[in-house]
Specification:
Elements lengths: L3 E6 L11 H14 L1 E5 L17 H18 L5 E3 L2 H16 L1 H12 L11 E3 H9 L1 H6 L9 E4 L21 H8 L3 E2 L19 H17 L4 E4 L2 H9 L1 H8 L7 E3 H8 L17 H8 L1
Parallel strand pairs: 1-2, 1-3, 3-4, 5-6, 5-7, 7-8
Helix pairs in contact: 1-11, 2-3, 2-4, 3-4
Length: about 300
C-alpha cells in the first residue's frame, strides 16, 4: 500500500494529558498500519470551535481557524487538511466555506493574518480522519490489514451529530449513516442493528452549563446500546466519547441504572484488529476499561 500524506491538525483535546490523548495514540498506530503519513501543522493554535462563540465576534473566530489553514498551505502545500476531532473539523470546514463565499470577510481575515506574515488562499480540502480512511481506502482495503478479528464483539456505532451534519461522510444518510456499522463488520465485529440513537446529540455543549439535560441525553444513548445487546460503543468524536463515558457514574446515581459501557474510538478498534498492543490502541486511557478489546489485543 503506497504511502498517502495529509496535513494534520491535532487539536487541543489530543495533547498529552488531555481528554482525547488516547485517541491520537490509536490514530498514530492505525496510520502506521495503513501506511498513512500525517504531517502536523507547525505552531497550530486552537480552532476556536467552542471559545469563538463565547464572545469576541465572527472575525476573530474565523481568523483563528484560518491561521491553521494558512500554516498548512505554507508548510504542507497541496495536502488535504485532516482533523480527528469533529468540532475542529467543523470549525475548519466552516472557515473555508465562509471565507470562500465572502470576499470581504476573506480580505478582513487576511488583513489580520498579515500581522503574523501569513496569507490564507483557501486551496485545500478540509477532512475528518474517518472520512479519509473510508473514502480514500474503502472497506475492502481496510479489511486486508486485519490480523486479529474482533470475534463478533457486539458494538453500537454512535456517530453523534457533529460528524454527521451538516457535511457527513460521502454517500451516507444523515438519518441512518452506516459507515461505523460497516467498519465494525470489516474488522470482524457485529454491529448493533437498528441502533436508534446513533445520530442523537450527547449534549456536549450543555455538559457544564446544564448537566441534567446533557446526562438525560447520554442515558438514552447508552440505554439504546444495551437494548441492542452491545458490549461497547464506538464513536468518531472525542466530545461524544468523553461525555458518554465519563458521566455514567453520575447517571447511575441519579437514575438508579447500572451502566458500565466502554466507549471507544473507531481507531481503537482498528488498531486492535490490526494486531497492535493494548497500549498502542490507547486502551490504557479508558475510564471504563474495554476488557474485550484488551483480551483480543493480548492474544
Amino acid at each position: 500500500m503506497a504511502t498517502k500524506e495529509y496535513s494534520f491538525y491535532p487539536g487541543c483535546s489530543s495533547q498529552k494529558g488531555a481528554s482525547g490523548s488516547n485517541y491520537l495514540v490509536s490514530v498514530d498506530a492505525m496510520c502506521e498500519a495503513l501506511d498513512i503519513q500525517l504531517n502536523s501543522i507547525p505552531d497550530w493554535n486552537c480552532c476556536s470551535a467552542s471559545i469563538g462563540f463565547c464572545g469576541g465576534g465572527e472575525l476573530p473566530r474565523l481568523a483563528l481557524s484560518a491561521r491553521n489553514l494558512a500554516l498548512s498551505e505554507q508548510h504542507n502545500p497541496g495536502q488535504d487538511v485532516v482533523a480527528t476531532c469533529a468540532a475542529c473539523w467543523l470549525a475548519a470546514r466552516e472557515t473555508s466555506g465562509r471565507l470562500g463565499d465572502d470576499q470581504q470577510l476573506m480580505a478582513e481575515t487576511n488583513e489580520a493574518l498579515a500581522e503574523a506574515g501569513l496569507v490564507f488562499k483557501n486551496e485545500n480540502k478540509i477532512r475528518h480522519m474517518v472520512g479519509v480512511i473510508i473514502e480514500d481506502y474503502g472497506y475492502q482495503a481496510l479489511g486486508k490489514a486485519v490480523v486479529k478479528p474482533l470475534e463478533d464483539t457486539k458494538i453500537a456505532g454512535y456517530v453523534g451529530c457533529q460528524t454527521n451534519r451538516p457535511f457527513g461522510i460521502k454517500g451516507e444518510s444523515f438519518e441512518n449513516p452506516k459507515y461505523l456499522d460497516k467498519l465494525v463488520e470489516t474488522l470482524g465485529g457485529a454491529p448493533v442493528e437498528n441502533y436508534d440513537k446513533k445520530v442523537s446529540c450527547c449534549g456536549g455543549a450543555l455538559a457544564f452549563s446544564e448537566p441534567e439535560k446533557s446526562q438525560a441525553l447520554i442515558k438514552d444513548i447508552i440505554e439504546s446500546a444495551y437494548d441492542g445487546g452491545a458490549e461497547m460503543i464506538v464513536t468518531p468524536c472525542p466530545v461524544c466519547q468523553m461525555n458518554v463515558e465519563v458521566y455514567q457514574d453520575q447517571i447511575n446515581a441519579k437514575y438508579g441504572t447500572k451502566f458500565h459501557m466502554p466507549v471507544v474510538y473507531y481507531s481503537t478498534l482498528m488498531t486492535v484488529a490490526y494486531g497492535k498492543s493494548a497500549k498502542e490502541a490507547g486502551l490504557d486511557g479508558q475510564v471504563i476499561p474495554a476488557k474485550r478489546l484488551e483480551e483480543i489485543a493480548s492474544q
